[in-house]
Amino acid sequence: MRFSFTSEQDEFRTIVRRLLDARSPVSEVRRLMATDAGWDRDAWRKINQELGLTAIHVPEAYGGQGFGYAELAIVLEEMGRGLLCAPFFSTAALATTAILNAGTEAQKQALLPSIAAGDTTATLAFSEDDGGNDAASVAMTATSSGGAWRLDGVKSFVLDGHTADIVVVLARAPGSSGESGLSFFTVAGDAPGLQRRRLKTMDETRKLARLQFNGVEAQLLGEAGTAAAPFARTLQQAAVLLANEMVGGAEKLRQSALDYAKMRMQFGRSIASFQTTKHKAADMLADVELAKSAAYYAAAAVDENDDDMPAVASLAKACAAEAYLQTAIHAIQIHGGIGFTWDNDTHLWFKRAKSSEILFGDANHHRELMLQRWGH
Amino acid sequence: MDMPSESTVRAEVRAWLEANWDPALGLVEWRNKLADSGWGAPHWPKEWYGRDLPQALASVVDEEFARIGAVGVAKAGIRTLAAATILAHGTSLHKEKFLRRILTGEDTWCQLFSEPGSGSDMAAAVTRADFKGNKWVINGQKVWTTSAHRADWGLLLARANWDVPKHKGLAYFILDMKQPGVQVHPLRQMNGHASFNQVFFTDAMVEPEFLMAEVGDGWTVATTTLMHERRGADSLRSWATASKREGRIYDEERAEIATTMEPYKWYPQRAGRVDLVLERAKATGKINDPVIRQEIARLLIMAKTAEWTARRARAAQEQGRPQGPEGSLGKLVSSHVARAAARVHTYIAGADALLSGEDGALDGVIAEILVSVPATSIAGGTDEIQRNIIAERVLRMPKEPSVDTDKPFRDVPRNTVSS
């Protein structure tokens, strides 16, 4: 396993960070999070196309750049740091990954080039009203008649579901249960019979939607009844990518809390000179660095097709969940009263820490999965 | 000076070993050959038993030794710290008298820094060094001294001037341990082992030429020793695997390792024995308890990420890249791992954790974990000191205002214990 970034990767990170610092300052984050869409199509198209971000891990055969998950993870770490408001995770980490895992050659040829080019956004709809993250909780049905598929049911907690141009949907054959009878479909965001409602979210930088399907016409993605395995793999990869996004946010919070502590004077001295602050700062560094190690290891495991990847994905997600939230708690505490105000930026990352903790299953869920995947 | 290439060094050491290595030799006899040839300590200076090779090339030499199973110079224990300190600060007399016998393993050394009244605040040592007649006279007490009962020589930090601030009044001596003024008593620990000693000085004598550097330089010299101690903390224990080969020299080396490593036999338990957790959980059926599963998973995540973080630091170092903050966390994180492991072992053992020795779980190993782990967050720099170091050196946070560094040590409030 590789334990360090190459100098090309370091350079790429620097370029991404510079772009996001310039185009997505926190004032822009605040502006976009208050909008209904949660992002700005023109602004995002420019950012995306400048570096070809949605093309990063798409193979060259489908109009992509052909890099690996390590590079995609770098982008996400930087986006987590900058709290970018854009449908990137939904499009690149979820939908693209699902299409790569499940789609036929012809479907990849048809779907991926416009996603890679940044012309089309997409998302993956799997959870329903119970918020489940496993195949067994899928109740939405897919019925076929005369060669056409129709979907009925509800998807919820769908990332950028209210704006996505394409929705990749997980549904099952009527009467099936568990991991059998599952298929992936693609649906146009404006398909007749699809009602989309943006949900009010605790973390306003990450928009979620509830999608009601009433006989919506859908295109089968891959082979009918075989989606369980590619879905599982997609969620594992998504967990790895989210963990990388999370450590970017955690690092940003850690640094800003440290900067504040050095600047804040109380009792005639910098609060950074108090041991209680120093020890907290040292613990924050340990939490974040350990979580980074897990996230980087997991991304390398995806690229190397390591047998251990499913367990390590859960490990990284569980580790990042605790590290990010703990860092956010400490960051607010170090800021004191100002840290609890709306005008101070800390709460934006605190809420992202909270939403990331829960998304795709919390730390308890992933710790259990990790042990099971290791065969214990 | 031109640095030889890796292949030149490899060929040279290989040829020398082929001509000289002989497992029938005595250990000291062989190591004297190593000292004379410079192959025993290739990273040392040429004039002092070395070859002036950088660490990377010295590793090539180690590889060649390992390849044919040749025994190296004595490496374990405080003697390597003594050598590093003498090479950096010693006079030619010191180097002449001590370095060869360090390499051969004929002399054993101990480090006389910590005192009952100064643990984390090591510069506040109150062991006295008074110059009387034509000798230094030492009075006071040291503690946590590994191998003091066997040591021939001690690296001693003592106070020679009480009228200057604490860091300025220290002197560093090489002390003959085998003299009437030095008394060594074992110090029994809460886990029942006695790996360390207390050392008492009653008018112990040091010849003036065994003062290292000048009076007042003691702290600087001690910093060199401590730096090497930190650097070598991991290698010390990984080194200690005895060769299984036959032959007189291997027998002698095995005996040396057994003696040197005896104080460290409980160290695996001190680190928490994460390696035993899953097999114990399965043996007891606790692996099916969802609460304990969560605790086990937390521990394994901590241990794995600690390992990967160390690998990241090492990878950066190997590539010659500047080391990030990940390299400073190992000691603190290992404390967390040990404590979490002790907690998990307790849950897994249940009532059996009440018992020890042959009545206890795993013949008392589990009990030994529970009563050894508290040392991890204290020995070699407490967690609190580690956090201060991380905060001040890595995160560049300001030091606390000091109340003792600017006034004469005589006026600094201190413990009444042995002052």
UniProtKB/TrEMBL annotation, chain A:
Residues 6-119 form the Acyl-CoA dehydrogenase/oxidase N-terminal domain. Residues 233-373 form the Acyl-CoA dehydrogenase/oxidase C-terminal domain. This is Acyl-CoA dehydrogenase. PANTHER family: ACYL-COA DEHYDROGENASE, ACYL-COA DEHYDROGENASE FADE28. Belongs to the acyl-CoA dehydrogenase family. The keyword Plastid does not apply. One of its GO terms (molecular function) is acyl-CoA dehydrogenase activity.
TrEMBL record, chain B:
The keyword 4Fe-4S does not apply. Residues 12-106 form the Acyl-CoA dehydrogenase/oxidase N-terminal domain. It comes from the Bacteria. GO terms for molecular function: flavin adenine dinucleotide binding; oxidoreductase activity, acting on the CH-CH group of donors. InterPro entries: Acyl-CoA_Oxase/DH_mid-dom, Acyl-CoA_Oxase/DH_mid-dom_sf, AcylCo_DH-like_C, AcylCo_DH/oxidase_C, AcylCoA_DH/ox_N, AcylCoA_DH/ox_N_sf, AcylCoA_DH/oxidase_NM_dom_sf, Mycobact_Acyl-CoA_DH. Residues 282-395 form the Acyl-CoA dehydrogenase/oxidase C-terminal domain. One of its GO terms (cellular component) is plasma membrane. Transmembrane segments: none annotated. Residues 399-419 are annotated as: Disordered. Residues 110-202 form the Acyl-CoA oxidase/dehydrogenase middle domain. Pfam families: Acyl-CoA_dh_1, Acyl-CoA_dh_M, Acyl-CoA_dh_N. Its cofactor is FAD. Keywords: FAD, Flavoprotein, Oxidoreductase. Residues 399-413 have a biased composition (Basic and acidic residues). PANTHER family: ACYL-COA DEHYDROGENASE, ACYL-COA DEHYDROGENASE FADE34. Belongs to the acyl-CoA dehydrogenase family. This is Acyl-CoA dehydrogenase.
